[in-house]
Amino acid sequence: MTKISENKEQEAAFLQTVANALGRDKPAGNAPSRKEAGPPVFWREQKFENEQPLEQFKANLETLTGKVMVVQNGQEATNQIRVWLKFLQAKTAMLWDHPELRKYIDVSQLGVKTSYWNADRPRKSLIETAEQADAGITWVNYAIGYTGTIALFSSGATGRSVSLLPPTHIAVMKKADIVPTMSTVMRDLLERRDQGSLPAAVDFITGPSRTSDIEMDLSIGVHGPFRVWTIVIEE
Q1: pTM (2 d.p.)
Q2: What pLDDT score does 9 carry?
């Protein structure tokens, strides 16, 4: 028996197993037609109460050992970051050079040495600064209530290293940017694609980095920060 024949027999056996599980005598001969693209209709038609996305986001992220602090305005957000940095005994923090972050967070009140990620500095220098920072502070484009996920869009002023290299990632967002499901984010990205304005990268972060690759032993912070703390501004 040739390798190709063996693979076809294995494929047929696998498809028959799936058909049996679905209560069918044999696998479908042709792939079913699917006219729609993107998220299924039932995802798009779900109804959510006003506070539900925030409540879901908080519950789901905190289940994954993240933190969610809800504040009223930029001053309270700044105060909360200062409290966290003091608790961490942090000396340095690196921030995205993002207009919303500059608007809401007063770095002069944080009590640590701060620097911004921006395209004016050499990339190697930026990465080295991020590696040495005690905390990375970013702005969140979207937060997803259903999974406790934050979505970060990267650009020349919003480098991925700020959320990846420091041991603590502090993510700031507005309550209005918390959406129920991933479908909203996907629709936005499709629109950006059509307009030729996709971000350089999109990171979906669901809690601190974790892995169980080695003997199923859970390790936190192996591939990224082991703390993901978020601030939600209700304003």
Answers
A1: 0.79
A2: 85
